[in-house]
Amino acid sequence: MWKDIETSSGIHQLDVEEIGGSRMLVIMPRVRIGGVSIGGNSERFPDGAVLISRREKNREFYQVYRDGVYSALRSRAIIQRQYGEVHTAGERHNVAMGIGSARVFLEHLIRYGQLSDEEREDVYFCLEELAKTLKCKRNESKVEARDYLELSADSEDSLGRENPMANCAELAAGMSHLTFRLTEIPEIAKYIGLDEVRLMAERDRHLTSCHQLYWKLIGALEKRPFKHAGKYSKVIYPLVERWLQQRIQDISEWRVAPFTRTRNHAIAELKDALSKSQSGSNGQAAILIRRVANSLNFKRAQYFLEQILMGVSLIEKSLKSDASTRNADFSISRASDLAADLGDLRVKLTRFLHDGGFQFKPKNLLIHHVDMAGRALAALEWQPAKKELKAATALL
Q1: Rounded to two decimals, what is the model's pTM?
Q2: Assuming Cys at both sites, which of 27, 208, 218, 355 could form a disulfide with 361, CB separation 3.0 to 4.6 Å?
Q3: Are strands 24-27 and 59-65 parallel, antiparallel or unpaired?
Q4: pLDDT tens digits, residue range 143-166?
Q5: Residues facing 62 on adjacent strands
Q6: pLDDT of 343-371, one tens digit each?
């Protein structure tokens, strides 16, 4: 909907939609699914930018977060710390992230029979890594959750058989204990705030769509028209055409940055794949589908980098407002945890990200920035760590 929006730089006519209410808006992507361009792009108001209402000196206007939902979330967290509303920067966020990750893995285990051997290995590896994030925890709910997650990460039962349904039950039990932990964290609504609830819901909606689309594309590549494209060249499959059209529709619904950075090129690639499939060139269509899936995997990885960037930003803000020895010691301990998380993430980035066929290959540069950020964290250099992490996320 086109509206006159007052920002810090004046009134501008923008195409926006509400995020849970008029207090929070998103600038809609200008290129629609039909390829029709609506309005020119703008550096000040890019596609997917988030706008949040604020009041300053008796004036109400919208603050523009050009980089989208992650930037807005980071800003909200820092503002809350500035006003003393956040006393523990990470626990609620980390528990919620664990529940979200477990939910995704549960979906994969439910459709275990449809997964390739590599995908099954991926799921169990990720479950094992998730369980490690809860090690050495004293809270009973977390300990129980960790124990169940460790059980779910074992792909074989006591008789040496694969039993994914038992793994599902164990994972669901672990999620239940993590969910109970959320009820134990005091003043949770005050910590997150209404803005954070809406921003996290918007982020999670896009992440879920990204996860689902990735696995749908990977699964399609195992189907006959694409897996044995040479044998079935020149064969046109109407069902494949309809399936690709639905995937294009799925991704066209992405509206918030940074997901919009992937949206347009992925739509273009899938449209090209659709054209190839319609002419019977299923092998060429498969290459394009694989490339889109690989690009979505980079977008999935961004979430984890953004969590670490959030942690570093909160440490830096905390030390500026409280230079006490106690806070400094806590910050050093937190920095050590973040550095360990970053090291674990580097292993996953190296293993699971692929940029073959990309016009610009970001993987090596991404890992370079991650390495530099790790060194800065080890040296307790917050600004260089933030700079490197922001440079890494900008590649995604």
Answers
A1: 0.70
A2: 355
A3: unpaired
A4: 888 888 888 888 877 777 888 888
A5: 7, 53
A6: 999 999 999 999 988 889 999 999 999 99
